[in-house]
Design brief:
The protein is an alpha/beta fold. It contains 34 helices and 56 strands. Helix content is 24%, strand content 18%. α5 packs across α11, α16 packs across α18 and α25 crosses α28. The two termini are 35 Å apart.
Length: 1381
């Protein structure tokens, strides 16, 4: 029995014996509700509808406290004596999970989410566990308390969320629900296997319900319990069909039936199908589908109740089988060989609990080599598919040390946002739009090896919020990093246990799982030293592999002699086993090349050592290094061991060591201070005669840290690698002999010529002089016989290349882009290895280069070439030829058709090309934009592999052959600004793969009805087609169309009657056969249209999110709009008078429980008919009434975890609506907060709707407006807390000059000045700090060219409306927003 203040309600719930009576006091009226899943459903329902509340429970004696915790209850005794495990427990101290309630009695409890329990799992003792029998897993479910008028079936359906289950149970209720299935379900829950078991009320009607379908599709394993009457249920058979269609794990259970009866539909199954064939004699195809599904399922390996007995054993076997299948859900290939990973993954997964709609941040903490990164990667691969975007930030600490942290952030944000051009150049992520986009994407981010808080601050400063459901995982050796960043979910890495250590060691040392004979004792000796460190075990085991018994025993004895079982000393043993050359390679990698490309490292090492390739392979075999994505990687412990080896060469004198990489050591050896400036002791370098690697980072520019006012007399002749960015001198030292040099990188240097005469460069493979703008000559390279890669980008004074270049038989890549004064290129015919030649923007290069027939890529963009010689037919291996913007180029010779390997051909911006080129039919991308071509010939049909066809800006193009329909591989077709193209060709056959069609700026008058054959078309652009009069009647058949742009189609005044109504079931026979129409449409742009009214059927577009109606100056009213609409832009619709229809999509966005968040933007700028001052003869101004309705909705709908709602509305106006609680002239306002907000909590805070009147009298920018709001909260004791929020609009401010506009703004998330995330409007009111005053300041901002923001216009008035009235706060405190950090 549960007592509410407003009535007495009986719950038909069987309570566990732990709770004999329960009294719950809540100020909330609820009608009759039925629960049939016990107390856990009631508790999970409370979680979804209320904030954490205190309840009073009577608990019987000797109740295990951890079982109370797992039910979702935070139990606090009313007196300390109630808890016998901790005599110091009191009301504030909470509950020890291992205590018991010895005396029973009344306890005050609080229902809270499971993740609000103590958040550190100590894997040594597993001190925090869930008991799934009592409480399996909390799910937010706001429908658990339904009104009395709601049907029970609707309630059941609403309870099924769009989320993943582990298991879906399909069974015949009357056969097995109360027996076998109930026991199976109970055991699955005990194993923490999230199982969907349906409600009979979901099985109504003739078809499987959407709720059941969602559950089937979202489950990883389906268990089908075939019983005697299973086939008699049409719903069971419908479930079975869907299960088999999903192609996931299926576990058949033949309960009391012969599998052959299922497979062949005999016995009771034959009887059932005889009835089905009679009842469904007009739908025999459906019955046939049922039979096929039964046959397929019957052939699967399953469990037979007549073979596996007793029933308890059968259930155990089934549950174990399911567990194995679920564990195999993670990529087996990735987890292969990772000993003990499954158990650790389960522990971490119990913390991050993917699927909960909150944001969780988890720290994985432990010593180096403990497996933190491996575990994080396993989790990442296991759950990443459940997120919209994901990114693994590798080696954060190392990235910072090498100055790559900025690049790492760029890569992360670009990948997550799916925007390759994203560029954040500031230390803080300031872009409001970027942050808004990020807040709408559920993301998974892993930050690996974070060593200090500043790294996380740099990576994420400015990102105020993440989308609900997002997860962030941080691995670190320093627990303080997690604590300082408020990461309270911490998983402490545990060492491998005895069995795991033994298994891992045997895999590495003996290639088996368990040792035998002498190997057992050997293993015990090794593992006693390694002490469960995975890296140490792998390294030692690998060093023993393949060795004889004597060697292995001797090596292990040496391990036992180490006085301290320190991991570093242990790893030294593996290092000692290397030969001299392998040791040097290992130390080079540890000091200089960790994280570098393997090919690059091998290239450098080959010049230093006799057997570099085999040496690297041996290091991999010994687990001293490994390769990840072709990058050389090494564990930190091993790298530190290598560093220590070098440091011990001369502990006190760094100049006597073989390698220098530590900045302070380099400083001491090379640097001297002179008049507060830093210079190099040139003699120090000269003395390093054996120096092989020398690299100066970013030594150019005003912030240069290294100055060489007198240059260097020489460089060591043993150098293999020299990188000197910004080299300050005109030439290399004359005494330097680069005969051993393998790679030379002098980008941004001041060099004019590297050296005089011929140099012995036999080892040189890579030469990079990019952006050396003083370079005028390349010295003779005839002796650089091994040169492979030469980069001379933007060497603007370079006039020619040496003729010796043609003899470089190993040269594979030559990049001369932006060498704008290069006039002559020597013959490269003998450079037979050359595959890539880049001459882009060599603007005075007139002659076509003479190259080898092996060339594969040739870039000639922006050159002055006029003719292409017929000799180019010899380029039989050419794959890419780009001659874009070659303004002097005339037509191609017919010889080009002989280039059979050519796949990409680009002539964009070459205006003298008048005929369609004859090219090979293997072409996949053809770019002819901006040429003078007049027609596309029928021979285009030969290009069967063509995927991208660009004819944009071909302003002489008049016709395109109808043969275009034969391009079955075509995906993208550009025809924009082909201003003479009046007819789009007939599409005589289906084109399934064409996704994007650009027809903007053409002279088309109509589209052919054959457009219906573009069945895969996703995006169609018809912007500024001023002659377009109508769309074909069958346009609605483009059922894949998502984006339709009709900007500037001023003559398109009528629509096909059936365009939008197809999905609604129009009367036409043809349309009834295809009810999907353009129901996929998401964006529709009608800017500049002369439509007076939109078709009423537009409401039937279920996925439409964005509707653009700018400058539709004849439009008078808006019809009912689809509830999916989020963005409506009616800027400058000067005749628009009626907009009340926007109420419905607003209600849908705010109230719909199926959406993770709501974002609405209604723009009515320059719609002066909506200005309430301009509307005559009305007592209730139109927008006033509409705004009031919106605010009422915002007041009435709030739950414990509200969705991230954001509302922007703009309309002409010069006054704040009358019903706003607080109004003020100017851009700021002070308000007093009502005392009622502090109801029984110190963390309650109201939400606000704000309004501003912005004057655009002197505004001139075309950029969108940002309304920024700063809020300062003041408490009774004088404390202050600053919050901020912003709204970005797409309103072109320059078109609002001379007018005032009223903005109504609402947002549920503010951030504080420290950029901490705030999911709800509110702030941290801790202890006795209660806020009683609030000050608001509004700033209209615009982005400048340098991405900074500046105030762009004046705020004349502002207002604040508190979203809950005083009486509501008193009557319904459970519906208020509460602050959550």
């Amino acid at each position: 029995m549960v007592s509410f203040n407003h009535g007495l309600i009986h719950f038909p719930v069987t309570l566990p014996w732990y709770l004999s009576t329960m009294v719950l006091h809540v100020s909330y009226q609820v009608a009759m509700v039925s629960f049939n899943h016990g107390l856990k459903r009631f508790i999970s329902g409370c979680h979804g509808i209320f904030q954490p509340w205190f309840y009073t429970f009577h608990i019987r004696e000797h109740t295990p406290a951890n079982l109370i915790l797992t039910m979702g209850l935070s139990v606090q005794a009313k007196s300390p004596s109630r808890l016998n495990s901790d005599p110091n427990s009191d009301y504030q101290s909470g509950l020890n999970p291992f205590s018991t309630y010895s005396s029973g009695g009344l306890y005050q409890c609080k229902v809270v989410p499971a993740y609000k329990f103590p958040r550190v799992i100590h894997s040594k003792n597993n001190s925090f566990t869930h008991n799934s029998e009592i409480f399996h897993q909390i799910r937010w479910n706001t429908d658990m308390l339904a009104s009395g008028s709601s049907s029970s079936s609707a309630t059941a359906a609403d309870m099924i969320q769009s989320r993943t289950y582990d298991v879906f149970l399909s069974f015949r209720g009357k056969d097995t629900r109360d027996g076998f299935v109930s026991h199976l379900y109970k055991d699955l829950c005990r194993k923490n296997i999230e199982t969907f078991i349906d409600d009979e009320e979901l099985r109504k009607g003739d078809e499987i319900s959407g709720a059941l379908l969602t559950a089937i599709q979202g489950s990883r394993v389906s268990v089908i319990v075939f019983s005697k009457d299973y086939a008699s249920s049409k719903w069971c058979l419908a479930e079975l069909v869907k299960i088999m269609e999903c192609n996931k794990w299926v576990v058949p259970v033949f309960y009391g039936v012969d599998p052959r009866d299922v497979r062949n539909q005999t016995g009771s199954f034959a009887e059932a199908f005889a009835k089905h064939e009679e009842n469904f004699k007009h739908e025999l195809e459906k019955v046939k589908t049922w039979r096929s599904a039964l046959t397929a399922a019957g052939k699967l390996s399953g469990w037979d109740s007549q073979v596996t007995r007793p029933e308890s054993r059968l259930i155990d076997e089934i549950v174990n089988d399911i567990l194995k299948k679920l564990n195999r859900g993670t990529s087996n290939a990735y987890l292969e060989g990772l000993v003990g990973i499954h158990r650790r993954m389960e522990q971490v997964m119990s913390l991050i609990q993917v699927g909960f709609p909150d944001v969780r941040r988890l720290g994985i903490w432990g010593m180096g080599g403990a497996g933190k990164t491996t575990l994080a990667e396993a989790i990442f691969h296991h759950i990443s598919n459940g997120f919209q975007s994901y990114y693994f930030l590798k080696n954060v600490r190392e990235s910072e040390e090498h100055g790559r942290l900025f690049q790492l952030r760029q890569e992360c944000l670009s990948t997550i946002m799916g925007d390759k051009n994203l560029n954040i150049s500031t230390p803080t992520i300031e872009a409001g739009f970027l942050k808004d986009r990020l807040s709408r994407k559920m993301v998974l981010i892993v930050c690996d090896d974070v060593s200090n808080s500043s790294q996380l601050e740099f990576l994420f400063k400015g990102i105020n919020q993440l989308c609900p459901g997002s997860r962030v995982i941080v691995t670190t050796r320093n627990k303080q990093v997690l604590i300082q960043n408020d990461i309270d979910l911490i998983y402490e890495m545990e060492k491998l246990d005895e069995d795991e250590s033994l298994q891992l060691f045997c895999q590495r040392a003996f290639k088996s799982n368990y040792p035998t004979g002498y190997r057992l004792e050997l293993s015990k000796m090794v593992l006693s030293v390694a002490d469960g460190n995975p890296l140490a075990i792998k390294v030692v085991g690998s060093s023993l592999y393949g060795k004889d018994k004597t060697y292995q025993e001797s090596t292990v004895k040496k391990l036992k002699q180490v006085p301290n079982p320190d991991i570093h000393k242990l790893l030294i043993c593996s290092f000692d086993a290397l030969d001299c050359e392998e040791k040097d390679i290992f130390l080079d990698i540890a000091c200089f090349f960790k994280g570098e490309n393997r090919d690059y490292v091998t290239r450098i090492m080959d010049a230093c050592y006799v057997s570099a390739h085999s040496g690297i392979e041996d290091l991999i075999d010994r687990s001293l290094i490994y390769v990840s994505q072709n990058q050389i990687a090494m564990h930190d412990l091993l790298q530190q061991m290598g560093w220590n080896v070098v440091c011990k060469e001369s502990p006190l004198e760094p100049k006597r060591r073989s390698r220098l990489w530590i900045p302070n050591d380099i400083h001491d050896v090379l640097i001297e201070n002179t008049n507060f400036r830093v210079g190099i002791k040139t003699r120090s370098i000269l003395k390093m005669r054996k120096l092989k690697f020398l690299k100066f980072y970013h030594s150019f520019g005003t912030n240069s840290k290294i100055l060489l006012p007198h240059g260097l007399l020489s460089l060591p002749d043993e150098l293999r690698y020299l990188c000197w960015e910004g080299y300050p001198l005109k030439t290399l030292p004359t005494k330097f002999h680069p005969r051993n040099l393998v790679e030379l990188d002098m980008s941004y240097s001041h060099v004019e010529k590297l050296w005089e005469g011929k140099q012995d460069l036999v080892n040189l493979k890579v030469m990079t002089l990019n952006h050396s703008k003083n370079l005028v000559e390349i010295a003779d390279l005839s002796r650089a016989t091994n040169l492979e890669n030469m980069n001379l980008v933007n060497c603007t004074k370079l006039l020619e290349l040496p003729s010796s270049l043609q003899h470089l038989e190993k040269l594979t890549r030559l990049n001369l882009r932006l060498c704008e004064n290069l006039r002559f290129l020597p013959s490269l015919y003998e450079a037979t290895s050359l595959t890539t030649l880049i001459l882009s923007d060599c603007s005075i290069l007139f002659s076509f280069p003479e190259v080898s027939s092996n060339l594969r890529e040739l870039h000639l963009e922006g050159t002055a070439i006029e003719q292409v010689p017929s000799s180019m037919e010899s380029l039989s291996q050419l794959v890419l030829l780009s001659m874009e913007d070659c303004v002097r180029l005339n037509n191609f010779p017919t010889a080009i058709c002989s280039l059979r390997s050519l796949e990409v051909f680009s002539l964009n911006g070459s205006p003298n090309i008048t005929t369609f080129p004859e090219i090979s039919g293997n072409i996949t991308e053809l770019n002819l934009g901006g040429t003078a071509i007049e027609e596309v010939p029928s021979s285009i049909e030969c290009f069967s592999n063509l995927r991208v066809f660009n004819l944009g800006c071909c302003r002489r193009l008049k016709s395109v052959s109808t043969s275009i329909h034969k391009l079955k591989s075509l995906k993208v077709f550009y025809l924009e600004d082909c201003s003479k193209l009046e007819i789009f060709p007939e599409i005589l056959d289906t084109m399934e793969r064409l996704r994007y069609l650009e027809l903007s700026g053409t002279a088309l008058k109509e589209l052919s009805s054959s457009m219906e054959n573009l069945i895969g078309l996703v995006e169609l652009r018809l912007n500024n087609c001023e002659n377009l009069v109508y769309l074909p009647d069958n346009f609605y058949k483009l059922k894949s169309l998502k984006f339709l742009y009709l900007y500037g189609c001023s003559n398109l005044v009528t629509w096909p009657d059936n365009l939008f109504s197809a999905i609604g079931g129009a009367s036409l026979t043809e349309m009834q056969r295809d009810l999907h129409g353009i129901s996929s449409l998401q964006e529709l742009d009608l800017t500049g249209s002369n439509l007076e009214n939109l078709p009423t059927s537009i409401k039937q577009l279920p996925r439409l999110k964005q509707l653009i109606l700018r400058k539709c100056r004849r439009l008078k009213s808006l019809p009912e709009l689809p509830p999916s609409l989020k963005h409506l832009d009616a800027h400058d619709c000067t005749s628009l008078e009626e907009v009340s229809s926007i109420k419905k999509p607003f209600e849908q966005a705010v109230l719909c429980k199926d959406r993770p968040y709501g974002f609405l933007e209604w723009i009515f700028s320059n719609c002066f008919q909506l200005d309430h001052k301009a509307v005559r003869n009305t007592r209730t101004p139109k927008l006033q009434m509409l705004f009031g309705h919106m605010v009422t909705l915002l007041k009435d709908y709030h739950q414990e975890f509200p969705k991230i709602n954001k509302v922007i509305t703009c309309v002409p106006g010069s006054e704040i609506p009358e019903w706003f609680d607080f109004k003020s002239s100017g851009s700021s306002i002070n308000i007093q907060l009502p005392s009622e907000w502090y109801y029984n909590s110190s963390k309650n805070f109201p939400t606000f709707v704000v309004s501003t009147v912005v004057s655009f009298q002197d505004y001139s920018s075309d950029r969108g407006i940002i309304i920024s709001c700063k809020c300062r909260l003041k408490s009774h004791n004088g404390d202050c807390h600053d919050l901020s929020c912003s709204w970005t609009t797409r309103i072109p401010g320059s078109e609002l000059v001379g007018s005032d506009h009223l903005f109504l703004l609402y947002k549920t998330c503010f951030c504080d000045e420290d950029d901490e995330v705030r999911w709800f409007v509110g702030t941290q009111a801790s202890n006795n700090r209660m806020y009683n005053d609030a000050w608001f300041k509004f700033y209209p901002l615009v982005f400048n060219g340098d991405r900074s923001q500046s105030i762009c216009c004046e705020v004349k008035h502002c207002g604040v409306h508190i979203s809950f009235a005083k009486e509501e706060a008193e009557v319904q405190p459970s519906k208020r927003f509460k602050y959550q950090s």
